Amino acid sequence: VAVIERFNYISRWVSSEIVLADTIEYRLVLINRFLVIATKCLELRNFNSVMALISGLENAAVQRLKQTWNSLPLKSWKLFHELSEMVSLNQNFRNLRVLIDQVHPPAIPYIGVFLMDLTFIGENP
Question: What is the pTM of this model?
Answer without folding.
Answer: 0.91
